[in-house]
Design goal:
6 helices; odorant binding; mainly alpha; sensory transduction; elongated; about 260 residues
Length: about 260
């Protein structure tokens, strides 16, 4: 999954610079998704094995109320298989949702890095031109529509990043709230159940499942915190640039970006 915002930029050097950041986010997202999928697979495998053992012993994998009599062999095995398949399917959906949101957050971080790199390159190019010829510096002080158009593209890119982040937040806000609340509730229940049952098979299964729940909450918190840190780092990056060489209007525009980033 690669999502790179098209802002109409054409860099003089390093045209694949933006793609490098997107590829890094893609590779990082794929690596984390594979690791999380393996962890979820190990958890659901343990739960499935325990469910099969319970079914062999004549017990349903999970205690539920059913509107029919499941004591007959055919209905018992149909119900058991349905419960096992449901757990596996829910695990796949859960992993897919979490890795999708995680990848979207990483793409937001990549866009902030692309923006910082392009803005840093802009200031460096302007500084190099001023150092080569002092006469150009005098010309640069006069208003120029071309320069205003250039800096406006960077502002547009920054606005597009925030628009993209708000869109992701609007789409997944309620879904993540319900899932996050449910994960915390399940985590508390699992820890309580783990403290009251000392069976070796149940303990091993619940330990792996509890670790998965902790990782799930950690993924949301870590990725969201990374987006906040990347957004705040834009202001620090602008402050560390050679911004005194820019015109007054461009300084004001950069100041607006810094205020938006805090």
């Amino acid at each position: 999954m690669t999502i790179c915002l098209d802002t109409g930029f054409t860099l003089e050097k390093g045209p694949n610079q933006g793609l490098k950041h997107c590829d890094f986010a893609l590779n990082c997202g794929q690596s984390c998704s594979i690791k999380y999928s393996l962890l979820a697979t190990s958890s659901v495998s343990g739960v499935t094995i325990r469910s099969v053992l319970n079914a062999i012993q004549g017990h349903l994998p999970y205690r539920v109320w059913l509107p029919y009599d499941y004591n007959t062999p055919s209905m018992f095995w149909i119900t058991s298989i349905q419960q096992i398949i449901t757990v596996i399917f829910c695990t796949i959906v859960n992993v897919g949702t979490e890795t999708l949101v995680f990848g979207l957050f990483l793409q937001t971080c990549a866009q902030f890095e692309i923006f910082e790199s392009r803005l840093r390159k802009l200031v460096m190019n302007k500084t190099n031109k001023l150092m080569k010829n002092e006469v150009r510096y005098q010309k640069y002080l006069s208003p120029s529509s071309n320069k205003e158009e250039t800096i406006s593209k960077y502002i547009y890119h920054h606005l597009e990043i925030y628009k993209y982040a708000k869109t992701v937040n609007f789409i997944f806000n309620q879904v993540l709230f319900v899932q996050f609340f449910g994960s915390i509730l399940i985590l508390c229940t699992s820890v309580y159940y783990l403290s009251t049952h000392s069976t070796l098979s149940e303990t091993a299964t619940l330990i792996v499942y509890t670790i998965c729940m902790f990782v799930q909450i950690y993924v949301y918190c870590w990725s969201g915190n990374e987006v906040i840190l990347k957004s705040m780092s834009v202001g620090d990056t602008i402050y560390c640039m050679n911004w005194p060489s820019l015109s007054v209007n461009e300084r004001k525009e950069l100041l607006m970006i810094m205020l938006r980033s805090t």
